[in-house]
Give the backbone structure.
Amino acid sequence: MNSSPWWKEATIYQIYPRSFFDSNGDGEGDLPGVTSKLDYVKSLGVDAIWLSPFYTSPNKDGGYDVANPRDVDPRFGNLEDARELITQAHKRDLRVIADIVPNHFSDQHEWFQAALKSKRGSKERERFHFYDANEDGTPPNNWISLFGGPSWTQVEDGQFYLHLFDSSQPDLNWENPEVNADFEKTLRFWIDLGVDGFRIDVAHGLIKEDVLTNHPDPQGLSNALRLDVAMDSDERNALLLTVPYFDRQGVHEIYRKWRKLFDSYSGREIMAVAEAWVHPPVNATRYVRADELHQVFNFDLLTAEFNSDVLFDVVERSISLNATVNALPTWALSNHDSPRVASRIGDEQARALALFVFGLPGSTYVFAGQELGLPDGQLQDSDRQDPTFFRTNGAIKGRDGARVPLPWSGDTTPFGFSTAKPWLPISQSWKDLTIENELADPKSSLHLYKNALDLRKEFLVGAGGITWLESSQHGHKSDSLLSYSRGSITVVMNLSDSAAECDAAGKLIIVSGGTVDARDGKKVIPARSTAWFLT
Ligand code: NOJ
């Protein structure tokens, strides 16, 4: 079954280019490396790739510190390489989503360099958020950066500039029309080069209000905003309702303009997905109103416990909230900012959850390496590169564990990723998790993903909504089961540590682990496993 437009129920494979495949032997992945592995990507059964930033950047924040948004950083190749990647992806019927970073530039961007050389109040400074110090010399307010430490850095003449992330990432002033004009130029640049869509970084952050007002608990707020900091969920949610710099109404005006720009490319179906982690969750639906963006990430599964009530709530809420604006949800179990799902909830649980999620309506995002069941890399502090680690003096380890390069082949690290020392070490313990090994093992996580994505395409894309069969709220029969039907498929997940019976009718077509038995006319689902039945 085909759904139209292409992005509506797509499976999108997130590639962190620096960690994917190194084509030139410098220890870092690059764009030609991605191009050379597109057959592998295609073989997974995905519809599109999302490339994390590969633009000119001093790389203080993994490329999310952009010094020139309309060029390629030499570590990744050049513009011709980007063009070739897009061409080769399209030849394989894979769409390409670029990552645009509108909340901030790198301090090495020519605008910021010009601002540093200009006077207070100059038009160069008005592209950013420059303010005078308080009378006692302290920064304009007490906000703490999402990477730790103050959100303000002082320049030579005594003014401070705002940076919600690293001091090398000055926030842009979106009240200044020059900023939008420049981003529209960037969007057109990449669309003209061939990209099919954009992932919008910190999409909810562009408009700032109350920039001179203190927050009552700036450290708590900064922690609550980090997916890699564990926190009681009530405490987190209460803090998240108080963020002064995210999700202001003005951001929607920007996306309405961008939507017009996307739609002006008739016949191209350009899409955009917002990275907008907002609270309460209903606010996320505003980003996907008919005249705004196409998708908004749902981050709940990145932190949700492997528990039937929790997962029921996440799925039900996301489907029903999106339905209020006629949109479909998105699902992601891992990304480059959060612990890998296999490390967070366990190997078998990660497979079970993936198979559960692949049946759901909407788009599914798969972070490269997730298909292999990769855990987080175990790193020494001396290996770490995430600015969070440095800005918190090591108190928060940061996100490098999820960014360790992919193991491709062979028995010895770095497993074919590079001929040189990789930028982050790949543990020898990943020997059995190489793509080569998993391709040879029909029971591997890789085969589960490939088979599931094929079946999803065959039976579920475009199959409409779900009907809950088993959950605490819907005819609860067992604490351990969560089950729904959709189209001709019944999906049953057993979250418990022992096998559990269910009434699902139909023929077993895939199971995430173990063997499904039949007993007294019932199906027995193995512990920590999901099965699909076809009726
Ligand atoms: C979200 C990105 O996913 C993350 O990697 C980055 O550090 C911040 N935005 C800042 O751009």
User: Anything to note?
Assistant: The radius of gyration is 23 Å.
